[in-house]
């Protein structure tokens, strides 16, 4: 029995199945439930879910439940497979007298099965560690940026609320409008629409105001947050490099000392 179960533990096979599942879910989106192709793809999705379920059973059988759950990746696999089970129940739900219509909303959870693909990324544990470290380092700066957006949004609301502009109808919409300006994408559209029909001086002041927001927040501010995030994420690599350089310097110093010591002995 165990040799058969080990087939389901082949990492290349599992990776192939995960990629196939992504293709099935993608392709199925182009068909409607009444079409034959849709039912074929649903069947494939069901059997892929069944494969993952057997894989889970195989791992628990070989490792034991306690050892299996010691791995964070195994816990993630278990959760994703559980989330995909409603999809399989719905596929088998054509039984007479059994109403499983409530599972229709849960079928979207089957997409989460494909998240298992991340465990096959090389050095993923190292990347996750760096990501966590970067989040911690940039969290306060990100919060500060968020508060700045809120303050500027509220300020802009009171400045432009009498203009009857859609972007500043209330404080929440105003904050969202300023957030869009911070992202830089299409930032010029808002000041252009606001300056339309206004005097030349008002038009210039509007463009200066929003240009300052883009420069200070969208370019400089977000660049600072991004640089802190990236620098912290790769700092572990920099630390390793610095340690290697220090080790090389130590060895060179030792070689130089040994060389000088040998020359002193020869001269004496």
UniProtKB/TrEMBL annotation:
Domain Ion transport stretches: 12-236
KW Transmembrane helix (keyword) present: yes
Classification via InterPro entries: Ion_trans_dom, VDCC_alpha-1_subunit, Volt_channel_dom_sf
TM region positions: 12-31, 37-58, 139-160, 208-229
Single GO cellular component term: voltage-gated calcium channel complex
Localization terms from the record: Membrane
UniProt keyword Magnesium present: no
Chief location category: membrane
Example of a GO MF term: high voltage-gated calcium channel activity
Topology term for the membrane: Multi-pass membrane protein
GO biological process: calcium ion import across plasma membrane
Keyword terms of this UniProt record: Calcium, Glycoprotein, Ion channel, Ion transport, Membrane, Transmembrane, Transmembrane helix, Transport, Voltage-gated channel
Name of this protein: Ion transporter
Organism, as annotated: Luteibaculum oceani
